[in-house]
Design brief:
The protein is α/β, with parallel strands linked by helices. Helices cover about 30% and strands about 25% of the residues. The longest helix is centred in the middle third of the chain and has 17 residues. The mean pLDDT is about 95.
Length: about 425
């Protein structure tokens, strides 16, 4: 039996409201006991001790939106390198998107991801399966069989299901299995630009993507949800109007949730003025007013989860003029640190921040993790929220280096990441 004791830790479990100094015992990969009174008498023989020195020990982070290149484009990112990046960022569970080659649209490919997850030996990896075959938006996948095989939710990743009839069938069918449907909310016909549609876009000479490209799609899907039932999730929202729409739908009793990326909480369209393509994201960075509305929506619970939106792109598709460059940025290693700026600024409580990256996504996906409780997997992150560091893209674990936070000073560093009781990352 392997036994590890974490002592002198600030234990934070947002699900239960726990926030106190204490200790934790992990046995054979699971949390055995925790609390301030643990080890008061004596530390049992055979327990390996980790002194947390007063730093925060919380559930490991769960990232609901991660793109990789495996299978088919391993030069961008493999499941192994994504796992290493995740561990360095305190992420213990990755939810990977189906936008691979071939797309994750049948049982064999779901099984492939599950097996590769075990082979990487770093963090937990679960797939979202495709909503439509080949991500083509024309024919619904076998949602029931895919869920039984291990798919935790269903999405077409960075593509929206534009056909309203197909989306209605998906929502209706998925309701029979209590399957979570995650939509990339964007009307394709309105999304031919490269940044937020605004006065700034005009001055920069760049074509714009209006906020209504997002809100129209959300409004349409919510109307469909009213008649089909089921569970609907907007993968990422980016504007104030979307926050209002989600809040209104909730008041009407619809089962709708949404996410926001750490980049959209930290950056805005003004960052695009440098024409640096690492700021070219989908959905695009919007105005400062929109960013502040997203932060407020996260604080009041309208926005449920924070994701990295990790989307590795290599130099061949990023080193182009802004208009021709690919969308996407990496974010696994900066997910926690960049988001902690909201806590340091007083915009958000630490408990709310951690909730959006631990038990809330776990509950949405039906995962038995995201909490500090006896009997649950010991998926943990130990971090110091105050230590400053400067992001060096070349030092990140991802194969691709397209981070919008390159050279940015962040505050908060992961010290140790534990998955199933085993340390998979430790800061030197």
């Amino acid at each position: 039996m392997s036994r590890t004791g974490f002592i002198n830790a600030r234990l934070i479990d947002p699900a239960s409201g726990l926030d106190e100094m204490g200790n934790m015992l992990v046995e054979d990969g699971k949390i055995a006991d925790l609390g301030p009174a643990l080890f008061n008498d004596a530390i049992p023989d055979g327990v390996e001790i980790v002194d947390c020195r007063g730093q925060i020990l919380s559930p490991g982070l769960i990232d609901m939106r991660v793109f990789t290149g495996e299978p088919g484009a391993e030069h961008r990112e493999t499941l192994r390198t994504a796992s290493l990046a995740a561990a360095a960022g305190g992420v213990t569970t990755l939810i990977v998107m189906p936008n691979t080659n071939p797309a994750i649209d049948d049982v064999a490919l779901v099984d492939f991801i599950e097996r590769r997850s075990r082979d990487t030996g770093v963090v937990n990896i679960h797939p979202m399966a495709a909503l439509t075959k080949g991500l083509a938006g024309k024919e619904m996948t076998e949602i029931g069989l895919l869920k039984e095989a291990g798919a935790v939710a269903f999405t077409d990743g960075d593509r929206s299901v534009a056909d309203a009839q197909i989306m209605r069938r998906i929502l209706s069918y998925a309701a029979n299995f209590d399957a979570l449907i995650a939509q990339h909310a964007e009307v394709p016909e309105l999304a031919h630009g490269v940044m937020n549609e605004s006065e700034l876009a005009g001055r920069l000479g760049l074509s714009g993507i209006p906020a209504i490209a997002e809100t129209i799609m959300i409004e349409r899907d919510l109307r469909l949800l009213e008649i089909t039932g089921g569970r609907y999730h907007v993968s990422q929202i980016s504007c104030a109007a979307s926050v209002e729409i989600i809040a209104r739908a909730r008041r009407h009793g619809l089962k709708v949730t949404c996410g926001v990326s750490s980049a959209h909480l930290s950056l805005n369209e003004n960052d695009v003025q440098s024409y640096r393509t690492f700021f070219k994201l989908s959905p695009p960075l919007r105005s400062e007013d929109d960013r502040r509305a997203l932060v407020a929506g996260l604080a009041d619970g309208t926005i449920d989860v924070i994701v990295s939106g990790h989307d590795p792109q290599d130099a061949e598709v990023k080193r182009h003029p802004f208009a021709q460059a690919a969308f996407g940025a990496i974010g696994l290693e900066t997910l926690l640190a960049s988001s902690l700026a909201l806590v340091h600024n007083g915009d958000l409580s630490l408990e709310r921040l951690l909730s959006a990256m631990t038990h809330v996504p776990a509950d949405l996906l039906g995962l038995k993790t995201g909490r500090l409780a006896a009997g649950l997997p010991a998926d943990l992150v130990l971090f110091n929220p105050g230590v400053p560091w400067v992001v060096d893209a070349d030092a990140l674990h991802s194969i691709s280096k397209n981070t919008p936070f390159d050279d940015r000073r962040l505050q908060g560093r992961v010290l140790r990441t534990i998955v199933g009781g085993r340390t998979v990352f430790q800061q030197d």
